[in-house]
Structure formats: C-alpha cells, structure tokens
C-alpha cells in the first residue's frame, strides 16, 4: 500500500470557526455560559461576532460550520468562502441573500482573532511539532494496518490535516467533502485516551466515507456516523497490531467521549459489531450498513 501523504495546515479563521463549533456543541448539551472564561476567554470577540451573525441567519449552524471549516484553507477571500459554504447548505436564493453578511462576519472574526492572538500561527506550529514528528515515524505503519482491516481504496491517497487550538478537550472531526481532518493540538490527552497520532489516523481513515461505493443506501449523516464508529474499533485494533497502543473497552469509551462521538454509550454495541466483523469479514459496505442498523436500533 502506498503511503498516505498528509499536508498540515494552520489557518486563523478556521481556528476561530473551530472554537465556534465547539461552543455550538457545548450549548446543545448544556446552557450557554454567561461569560467566556478559561481557554475560551481569548476567543470572546470572534465568538461574539459569530453569534451576532447567527442570530439573524436562517441556516443551521452545524452544517454551515462543517462546510466553512473544511473550506476555509482553500480561500483567501471571505466572500468566496461564504458563498461556497452557503452553497452547500442552502438553496441558491437563500445563499445569495446571506452571503454578504456572512462574509463580513468571517472577515471580522479573522481580524479579531489575529488582533487578540498575533502569535496564534507560531504557537500552533510549535505545539504541533511533536505530533507531526511522531506521525512521520508511525503514521504509515498505522494506516497500513487500518487498510488491511477495511477495503481497497477505503483510505485516501492524500489529505489535509487542519491544526486547531485545544478548546474542546481533544475534539476533532473528519470533513470528507473537503478531504480534510481537523484535530486539536497542544492540549492534554484525557485519561485512558489514545495519543493524538492515533486520533489523526482515525480521522484520516474516515475521509472516503462519502464515496457512493461505500455509502450505499445510507444517508450521508448515517454513513459518516457508521464510519466514525467503525474506524474507532479498527484504528484502535490497528494501533495494537502496530504495537503503538494497547486498548480495551475503557480506552474505547475514553476516545469516544474525547473525540466527540455520539452516542457516547455505544461502546458495547461497537464491540459486538467488531467481534462479528473480525471473524466473518463481510464486505465493507455491508459491514458499515450493519453497524448503522445496530446504532439506530439502540434504545
């Protein structure tokens, strides 16, 4: 198997949008904080700018942020980013109507981020050096092991890895439409959680989940969920095969919590799926469909 080439990216606006996404996820689970404190404090102005735009927008924040974060490294102009992201989540007239205001908000977020953190790029570059150096040593073997457990052409030949600030406790995401993985750097690793190198492999290994040959009859959302859970089991097994990291149910649960998998209590379901898949080795699309059915059938 040929090595998967990774391009490591750092971009101020994408970093600010990542913080907004983390806050969105937290708000969905608990009341919004009355003030921004702790690691979010320095992001108060970009968050306020995004909130002001979102208060008048008619598109859902989650899908819009997913697209904007994935596309941000491709565009230098906020007008182009706003138009491209909205085109993915809204009809033509709605996108055209909202693009100017979103572009202004994005430009303001970028300026506010750099004004408050002029050293952001240098800091993320320095904090990501251990991860990038470790990946050079073990990333290839780890993905080789993942490839043996999945299907031909499941792994992408190349991908972008967006390095973002550690405000979500290790939260990351795969963006298949942009062929990009997003991972926090510089923060502590949660107890019993695999190291960031394993998380990079887990994210990169999800980037072909939207291909029709693998998605089959599943919706994009269901295919992404099934791929994320399936790759958790397989990535942890691959890490053990490569003698990088031993794992058990506690490790799997810790990773699911830290990496933002839902529902977080599906580890037992995943273990049952993995035991069948490991022994029977059905086709990969069939295995993903079976896991989706198991996740959907949970009480």
Describe it for me?
The protein has about 300 residues and is of the alpha/beta class. Helix content is about 60%, strand content about 5%. The chain contains twelve helices and four strands. It has helices at about 10-30, 45-55, 60-70, 80-90, 90-115, 120-150, 195-205, 210-215, 220-240, 250-260, 265-280, 285-295; strands at about 5-10, 160-165, 170-175, 180-185. The chain has a four-stranded mixed sheet, with helices on both faces. Strand 3 and strand 4 form a beta hairpin. The protein is globular. It starts with a strand and ends with a helix. The mean pLDDT is about 90.
What's the topology here?
Elements: E1 5-9, H1 12-29, H2 44-54, H3 61-71, H4 78-89, H5 92-116, H6 120-149, E2 158-164, E3 172-175, E4 180-184, H7 196-204, H8 212-215, H9 220-241, H10 249-258, H11 267-280, H12 284-296
Helix pairs in contact: 1-3, 1-5, 2-5, 3-4, 4-5, 6-7, 6-9, 7-9, 9-12, 11-12
Contiguous low-pLDDT stretches (5 residues minimum) are: none
Helix amount: 55-70%
Averaged pLDDT: 92
Count of distinct strands: 4
Strand order of the largest sheet: 1-2-4-3
SSE sequence, one letter per element: EHHHHHHEEEHHHHHH
Give a quick account of the main beta sheet: strands, pairing sense, barrel closure: 4 strands, mixed
Q: Given the helix and strand composition, which structural class is it?
A: alpha/beta
Strand content: 5-15%
Query: What is the CA-CA span between the terminal residues?
Result: 40 Å
Rg over alpha carbons: 19 Å
Count of discrete alpha- or pi-helical segments spanning 4 or more residues: 12
| Basic shape | globular
């Amino acid at each position: 198997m040929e090595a998967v080439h990774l391009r490591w990216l750092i971009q101020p606006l994408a970093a600010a949008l990542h913080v907004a996404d983390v806050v969105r996820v937290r708000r969905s689970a608990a009341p919004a904080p009355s003030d921004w404190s702790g690691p979010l404090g320095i992001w108060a102005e970009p968050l306020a700018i995004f909130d002001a735009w979102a208060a008048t927008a008619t598109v859902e924040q989650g899908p819009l942020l997913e697209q904007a974060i994935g596309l941000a490294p491709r565009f230098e102009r906020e007008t182009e980013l706003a138009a491209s992201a909205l085109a993915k989540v809204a009809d033509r007239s709605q996108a055209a109507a909202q693009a100017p205001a979103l572009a202004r908000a994005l430009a303001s977020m970028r300026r506010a981020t750099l004004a408050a953190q002029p050293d952001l790029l240098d800091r993320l570059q320095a904090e990501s050096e251990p991860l990038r150096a470790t990946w050079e040593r073990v990333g290839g073997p780890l993905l080789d092991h993942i490839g043996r457990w999945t299907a031909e052409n499941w792994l992408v030949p190349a991908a972008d890895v967006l390095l973002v600030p550690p405000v979500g406790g290790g939260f990351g995401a795969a963006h298949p439409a942009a062929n990009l993985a997003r991972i926090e750097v510089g923060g502590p690793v949660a107890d019993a959680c695999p190291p960031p190198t394993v998380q990079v492999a887990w994210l990169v290994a999800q980037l072909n989940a939207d291909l029709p040959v693998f998605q089959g009859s599943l919706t994009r959302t269901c295919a992404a969920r099934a791929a994320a859970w399936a790759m958790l089991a397989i990535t942890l097994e691959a890490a053990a095969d490569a003698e990088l990291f031993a794992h058990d149910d506690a490790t799997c649960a810790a990773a699911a919590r830290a990496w933002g998998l839902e529902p977080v209590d599906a580890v037992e379901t995943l273990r049952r799926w993995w035991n069948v898949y490991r022994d029977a080795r059905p086709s990969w699309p069939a295995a993903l469909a079976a896991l989706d059915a198991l996740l959907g059938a949970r009480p």
